[in-house]
Amino acid sequence: MSIRLIDVHKAFGEKQVLTGFSLDIEEGQTLSIIGGSGVGKSVALKHVVGLLEPDSGEVWVDGRNVSVLSQEELYELRRDVGYVFQFAALFDSMTVNDNVGMGLKRIPGWTPARISARVEECLHLVDLDGYGDRFPAELSGGQRKRAGLARAIATEPKYLLYDEPTTGLDPVTTAVIDQLIVRMRSELGVTGVVITHDMDSAFRISDRIAMLYDGRIRFEGTPDEVRGTQDRVVRGFIEGRPDLLEVAS
Amino acid sequence: MRISLLRPVEAVGQAVLSAVAAVGRAGQLGLGAVRALRKGSIWGPHLLPQMAKIGVDSVPIALFIALFTGVVLSLQASYTFTGAIPLYFVGTLVGKTMVLELGPVLTGLALSGRVGANIAAEIGTMRVTEQVDALETLAYDPNAYLVVPRVLAGALMFPMVVLLANGVGVLAGWATSLSLLDMSSQEFLKGLRLFFRSWDVWFSVIKSVSFGITVTSVGCFFGFGTTGGAEGVGRATTRSVVVSSMIILVLDAFWAAVLLK
Amino acid sequence: MSKGRELLVGFVIIAAVAVGVVGTLWLKGVHWGRPLEPLQILVPDVAQLTPGDAVVFRGVRIGRVSTIQVEPDGQAVRVSVNLEEQVKLPADAGGVVAPESMFGDWQAEIVSRSRYPRYHFYDVPKVDSTADVRVIGGYTIPELTRLTASAEEISTNLANLTNRLELAFNEQTAQNLSRAIDNIEAVTREVRDLVNREAAVAASVTANADSALNEIEQASRAARVSFERVQQLLSDAKMDSIMDNVQLATGDIQKVSGVLANSSGDLRGTLASMDSSFARLDRITAQLESGRGSLGRLLADSTFAVRAEGVLEQLDLLLKDLRENPRRYVRLSIF
Ligand SMILES: Nc1ncnc2c1ncn2[C@@H]1O[C@H](COP(=O)(O)OP(=O)(O)O)[C@@H](O)[C@H]1O
Ligand SMILES: [Mg+2]
């Protein structure tokens, strides 16, 4: 099963954010979406779990058309999807343990003991051992991000959506997170979508890379294809050359 | 030229559209909350904490207000009645006014600040920091998780707080009439009992239930509608207090017209 | 969520419900444990009596009104009361529904009917009196009556009231009234003097004079009745019928004076003055009637009633004298 976005249009008021966004993510693959700030990467990702509804176009996840699902079916679908928010979005009234355990509590049959064991496991995976009793406000930005990641993977979802999981992290932690994303795919067969600005990590973790530009996918291909592309916009972005971007538009 | 001429028309149109949209969103929220009532497993664990937060924590301020209201009512009544009307009517006025009007309304207004603003700020912050979205992705219906326990707690606890406030207000009026007005307990009680109907207490309870639902759901509504960071949260909080205070006063008149015929 | 917070929630709820329930019951004056004695009062109407109002016996509050229901046949209202005290009520007990104070709170008083012969207690049907619950007839006092009855208590307010009523019942009316009374007094004095002067003459009584006497007597009786009712007014608000009676009486007296005018020339002058005084009385009556709101003043002015009483007494004496000593009036038969 896969994730498909077909000709998605989305505007907020006057502002057109997505204008004919189409993207296919094959099952078991990890795709990275790159693009400048504010082009609508997060908006595109939110469509996948029905946090936003397309003005037109279709979003298919796991063989289901997200925008026509009933509320119950949508929640059903979301149990299979983990979402790592750009700014972690931890519940600040709860400890890290409770945050990570939130999704697990919704699974029938899970005892508190089993939940806390799994929570500990997930915190270990993101290198946050011993931070379980802290509140989000007592964590650094990077720690918060990792706690958010732990929360997303806790329920062992089939799909993982990462919104800038490594932005603002130190290189070591970035490497840890990248490894985690790779392991998710290779060991658990997770289908992943990663939004990132970090081209190094994009090349490391991705099966495919897509660039969002001007409301739609400008380019899509394997890391090698991206490296070899002659598209000025893509090259301008990955090489960090605004001059190329300006000429293109 | 054409544009500048049409601008007022456009503004009116936009205002109407946004009002209709707001009503629509409110309806959606209401429907969502009613549907979310089924999801007891989500809101159940949060009901009691919310009852504590909305109800118990509001008791001190409500009683403080009631205390002084009772004192003032008593003094003003005696001031007004001097000569023409027997003093025991101070008891009548304190009892009636406290239970029928000031107990529920002053408590409701005070709590629209304390409780409604708190809810709007809390949910607004959760909204702008994507915690509401996070709830969605974790398969928690935000209506069930956030709205239902708060509105239920408001509906259950407001009347409790108001009953206590009524009691304290009347007692304060009584104490005042004894200590400052040179009345006897018998006189005060005679007046208090004179026109007392148990329906008055029910009226007070019905009113405060409606105020509790109003304050909490308006807080939730503006909290959910928050956009634009910290400033947006501030805006949502202010609007929530203003709107729920207005609705309380309108409801107050409505109940008086409907129930006190 | 700590245990302490949960306890607090429970405590607040219990305290609030307790305040609501206990407060309500306490203010309603519910008595716990003590058995209640039911009693029912049938009255034509209840005025402003409502459930919860006091039931009073010999000035002591002994219970409360529990329910008020119109009888199925629509002819009366059944007031059910619960008596908290075990009291032996009089055999001829009746219920008097009346205001407790003039501020709108009412009560049902249980009285011995013999003490209030003028009240028309509701007749309890036979079927009812055999029921388990004792059913007594009641009488509802019209509100205005109680208003005047407690006139002393509220004299300050009444002063205000009368000020406002001055328009309808002004000084002139009062003067007219007292002048009329003076006139009647003068007339009766004159009649008596006349009679005394003529007493020496003896002759047989003519049929003419006889019928005149009878009619005077009747008129006087009617007048007396109406003035008696003026007194009753202090506790009874049937002003309209009283006014009618007064008018009837004055009408009668006028007729009588007509007859007398025919039969006695010497009396003519006297009767003419009588006539004018009656006419004046008539005008006052009309004025009173038109200014119905001023009845309070009339009732409060007890001197009127007292003086009227005195006049009637004299008239009565005169008539008695006429009857007993017809010969003293023989002069009348000469014409
Ligand atoms: N809920 C929203 N309401 C209005 N505008 C929004 C909303 N979400 C995103 N936007 C706008 O859409 C654009 C794309 O945002 P986003 O997807 O967050 O950018 P990025 O690619 O950096 O993730 C931005 O201009 C943002 O202001
Ligand atoms: Mg983003």
Count, helices of chain C = 10
Mean pLDDT of chain B: 88
Structural class of chain B: mainly alpha
Structural class of chain C: alpha/beta
Determine the strand fraction of chain C and express it as a percent band: 5-15%
Distance between the termini of chain B: 56 Å
Strand order of the largest sheet of chain C: 1-4-3-2-6-5-7
Chain pair sharing the greatest interface: B-C, 32 and 24 residues
Low-pLDDT stretches of chain B: none
Identify every distinct bound molecule in the structure, by name, code or SMILES.
Answer: adenosine-5'-diphosphate, magnesium ion
Number of domains of chain B: 1
Largest sheet of chain C: 7 strands, mixed, barrel
3D architecture notes:
The complex is a heterotrimer of chains A (249), B (261) and C (335). Chain A has 249 residues and is of the alpha/beta class. Chain A contains 10 helices and 10 strands. In chain A, strand 7, helix 6 (171-188) and strand 8 (191-195) form a beta-alpha-beta unit. Chain B has 261 residues and is mainly α. Chain B has helices at residues 2-36, 40-55, 59-81, 89-128, 131-137, 142-179, 185-194, 198-224, 229-259. In chain B, helix 4 (89-128) runs antiparallel to helix 9. Chain C has 335 residues and is of the alpha/beta class. Chain C folds into 2 domains: 37-140, no CATH class; 144-334, no CATH class. Helix content of chain C is 54%, strand content 15%. Chain C has 10 helices and 7 strands. In chain C, strand 3 (60-70) and strand 4 (77-83) form a beta hairpin. In chain C, helix 6 (207-232) runs antiparallel to helix 7 and helix 7 (239-263) packs antiparallel against helix 8. Classes of the chains: A alpha/beta (249), B mainly alpha (261), C alpha/beta (335). Chains in contact: A-B, B-C. At the B-C interface, helix 2, helix 6, helix 7 and helix 8 of B face helix 1 of C. The complex binds adenosine-5'-diphosphate and magnesium ion (MG). The site of magnesium ion (MG) has 4 residues of chain A, from helix 1.
